[in-house]
Design goal:
About 20% of the residues lie in helices and about 35% in strands. It has about 200 residues and is an alpha+beta fold. The protein folds into two domains: about 60 residues, Orthogonal Bundle (Arc Repressor Mutant, subunit A); about 130 residues, Umud Fragment, subunit A (Ribbon). It starts with 6 loop residues before the first helix and ends with a helix.
């Protein structure tokens, strides 16, 4: 389990995310020290080491701006019939901070099974892919969601309507059909990015 951050550690992590959003790159140690009012860039380095030890960052020793975030892999989810994700934590993957922003605890990874979303856009979802999911209980029409049906989960396009919602596949396999839900339905989160195995070296 990832350890809780101290207020100062959270401040450093937030400063890294804010710098990236403004400049489209990670801050150097010197820039981070200046932003946070540290007297020395060594203070920045010490905080980065603490964040890495607690599982929030991965520091590439050969790249001064190479800051990554640890995100839990929580199991599998079906891209076919609804099957709930495995409860056991598989481990962690290192994700570029730019995909996460300032709140890494809002995200998790699920491993996709099946082919019902292999024609999804902008990225096809294929068997074995890792889906970066943001925890949230609602979604906009047309977003790809991790949906809960009778306690089980599936990945589909979300199309709400009055009194019901449609969960739509986009597949080369015509056997996959829309799922219409009216009750015992909920949303676990919204898929924000699809990673292939090679992307994360998993």
């Amino acid at each position: 389990m990832v350890e809780t951050l101290t207020p100062n550690e959270q401040r450093v992590l937030d400063a890294i995310a804010a710098h990236f959003e403004q400049h489209n790159r990670m801050p150097t140690h010197a820039e981070l020290a200046e932003t946070l009012g540290f007297k020395s860039k060594n203070s920045s380095w010490q905080y980065l080491q603490q964040l890495q030890r607690k599982g929030y960052l991965h520091i590439d020793a050969y790249k001064s701006r190479g800051v990554m975030v640890s995100v839990p892999i929580v199991g599998h989810v079906a891209c076919g019939k609804p099957v709930w994700a495995e409860a056991d934590l598989e481990g962690y993957a290192q994700i570029d901070q730019r995909f996460i922003g300032a709140n890494p605890n809002e995200f998790f990874l699920l491993r996709a099974d099946g082919d019902s979303m292999n024609r999804a856009t902008p990225a096809a979802i294929e068997d074995g892919d890792l889906l970066l999911v943001r925890h949230q209980s609602d979604a906009d029409s047309g977003e790809i969601v991790v949906a809960r049906i009778d306690g089980e989960a599936t990945v589909k396009y979300y199309k709400p309507s009055t009194g019901y919602a449609a969960l739509l596949p986009r597949s080369s396999n015509s056997a996959h059909q829309p799922i219409i839900v009216t009750e015992r339905f909920g949303i676990y989160g919204v898929v924000r990015r699809v990673f292939k195995r090679a992307d994360l070296s998993l």
